[in-house]
Amino acid sequence: MKKLKVVISGGGTGGHIYPAIAVAQALQKRLNNQVEFLFVGASDRMEMEKVPKAGYPIVGLWISGLQRSLSTKNLLFPFKVISSVFKSLGILKSFKPDVAIGFGGYASGAMLYASTKKKIPSLIHEQNSYAGITNKILKDRVNKICVAYDGMERFFPASKIIKTGNPIRQDLLDISGKRVEALSFFKLDASKKTILIIGGSLGARTINESIFEGIDKLKEANVNVIWQTGKNFSKAESVQHSTFKIQQFIYEMDLAYAAADVVISRAGALSIAELAQVKKPVILVPSPNVSEDHQTKNAMALVDKQAAILVKDIDAKSKLIDELLALIKDEQKQNELMNNISRFAIPDAAERIVDEVLAICAHR
Fold first, then answer.
1. What CATH fold (topology level) applies to the domain 171-342?
2. SS3 for the chain, per residue?
3. Residue 320 CB contacts under 8 Å (≥ 6 apart), including other chains
4. pLDDT at residue 329 in the model
5. Residues 4-166+347-362, CATH architecture
6. 312 phi and psi, to 5 degrees?
7. Global pTM value
8. The predicted structure's pLDDT at residue 47
């Protein structure tokens, strides 16, 4: 049997990279490893580390986004686009893929543009409730568009849209029964409520600052705290408390979620997909530093269904701790949020995307 050759492109953030890896793993499983992958990313972004760590080869393109502020770097943007498209055409010529899959980000734009130019069956996945610029540019060129939210006809041709959800890691599909192990792992007091604070893979300055400024209130509240700070928040090192576990990065996210009674999180698409799957009451603090403010739009999709609480980034220092302490005491509200957010879970998202990938290959 001839191996299916798949080029996968996307990156810049974990929200693009981890769904791409999840789909690659699902394809491997479905095809009994009769598949060969080549990932394509931006040469200076986190995919160049994360993808090889997951066991896949990756090639980097000289590409980056436009700077929001006036910057001389923007003058290079047209040259980077042209260079990346030509390099993508070269990659396609040597790798000869049967199908191309894009997960957003500028590298995905260059590769999927080249793929569609070569008439290679192509599919894109949009993680957010507000479509990114790359996918909006590609919408008329690709065969299928997989989405995670309803109402995406605002951005894409309805005939191409398939609602698949956002793929998440396998270890988060079922955390039931892990709570005792999780509390033991983090050395937490089983008689206390546990708060999990996460700001994405790079941390979140506003969340970190807000928690640090309210640390005395948290100590008085007599709770457990698991706090992922990211790399660049040294103030947290000064916090000493027996039931506070503070780490730059949490690798055991299944156990962190299993231990948590309430979560504080940014509103990235992948974070929301995970929170829906693990059914946790959450206070979302959307990052204002993302294109088209899509985290706020992601958050509002939940808030409108009473599935999450929203605290704006600009209000976090004055409101976040008080909202958190009110929620941790209100079990009825926690249950309401848990029930409502669970309706957003799509546990077989990666499998649904694989179905569409194989369908467009079959029609070639």
1. Rossmann fold (3.40.50)
2. CCCEEEEEECCCCHHHHHHHHHHHHHHHHHCCCCEEEEEEEECCCCHHHHHHHCCCCEEEECCCCCCCCCCHHHHHHHHHHHHHHHHHHHHHHHHCCCEEEECCCHHHHHHHHHHHHCCCCEEEEECCCCCCHHHHHHCCCCCEEEECCCCHHHCCCHHHEEECCCCCCHHHCCCCCCHHHHHHHCCCCCCCCEEEECCCCCCCHHHHHHHHHCHHHHHHCCCEEEEECCCCCHHHHHCCCCCEEEECCCCCHHHHHHHCCEEEECCCHHHHHHHHHHCCCEEECCCCCCHHHHHHHHHHHHHCCCCCEECCHHHHHHHHHHHHHHHHHCHHHHHHHHHHHHCCCCCCHHHHHHHHHHHHHHCC
3. 207, 210, 211, 214, 264, 283, 285, 311
4. 95
5. 3-Layer(aba) Sandwich (3.40)
6. -65, 150
7. 0.85
8. 79
Any residues with CB less than 8 A from the CB of 199 and at least 6 apart, and which?
205, 207, 208, 228, 229, 230, 265, 266
What average pLDDT does the structure give for the chain? Answer: 89
User: In angstroms, rounded to a whole number, what is the distance separating the alpha carbons of residues 60 and 53?
Assistant: 15
pLDDT at 50: 85
* CA distance linking residue 124 with residue 135, whole number of Å: 7
Query: Residue 67 has what pLDDT?
Result: 47
- Tokens representing residue 281 in the block: 């009451």
Please check whether the two domains, 4-166+347-362 and 171-342, share a CATH topology.
yes
pLDDT at 75: 56
Q: Which of 90, 122, 97, 88 is nearest to 5 (CA)?
A: 97
> According to the model, what pLDDT value does residue 109 have?
87
Which sequence spans correspond to the domains of the chain? 4-166+347-362, 171-342
Dihedral of CA 29/30/34/36: which sign?
negative
Residues of the chain with pLDDT under 70: 1, 14, 63-82, 200-203, 364
